[in-house]
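Example noted here:
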Amino acid sequence: MVSTVSDDLYKRAAVIFGSSAQGVHWPYDVSGLDYTLRKKDREAFEKKLAELTTKRCTIVEWAEHHGLKESSVRCCPLWLTRKVSRRCGWDSDCQSGSVDRSWMDHTICWLRNGRPAVITSAPYNVNDEDQQRLIWWRKQHPVLRVQQGEGWYGFGTTQIVVWNSERIQHVSPASNIDDPRTFMPTS
């Protein structure tokens, strides 16, 4: 079952994240696994592989559901207001110690129909200053929307989704599958 899931998943992921001879260009959040564990502890390896497969399925299905592809550009929410995918200038707050840095951990910028549409992040904690900053972004740019939820990253993080409502009406945070045994091979 895992190889069938993986083959289909890799083909779908390549469309979203791109690929090369080395494989899919997975984002850091779901990039890989320590394969030396396979020889050391087969059961632990199978569990980690199932967890990784769960995260990969979650991110691919979420991106497909919303019609998104990963952008090579990394930027602040101002990026979402642009007509084309380009970064802020080097002298901007975004590029030089941004006040958004704490909530923009494990960030992925997403395109829809080739235009900036969504930013996801997965900070380990979201404090009051972060909440105020997200409110500030919405006040500065009324087309921006924000949601928080579980996401695919794990490790106790909160997924923050910021999107341009003129390009995509609604985006929900991803829901991770709690039981990775779904993707574990049966004995």
About this structure: DSSP finds four helices and seven strands in the chain. Residues 122 and 164 are 19 Å apart (CA to CA). The first strand starts at residue 19 and ends at 20.
